[in-house]
Write a structure and sequence with these properties.
Elements: H1 2-25, H2 36-61
Length: 74
């Protein structure tokens, strides 16, 4: 379970890095701008939503359990 979440976070960060690279590289030296940044950000949003839905489904199916945080001071 942890590996799925870690891989999803890595994929989200890779999509964010690809969007940043597209932001910095597209349209330089007279080259036309492309939709690479738009597509990378769309992937990032899709992966984030998919991770959120996966965590909700995993909780409902009992694959993960909340541990809670102690609310009283030590």
């Amino acid at each position: 379970m942890k590996w799925i979440v870690i891989l999803a976070f890595v994929a989200i960060l890779v999509a964010l890095a690809a969007a940043g690279r597209a932001l910095l590289k597209d349209g330089r030296d007279g080259a036309p701008k492309t939709d690479r940044m738009l597509h990378a950000l769309a992937w990032r949003i899709g992966l984030s939503v998919a991770l959120f839905v996966f965590i909700l489904i995993a909780y409902k199916l009992g694959w993960i359990q909340p541990t809670g945080l102690p609310l009283s001071p030590r």
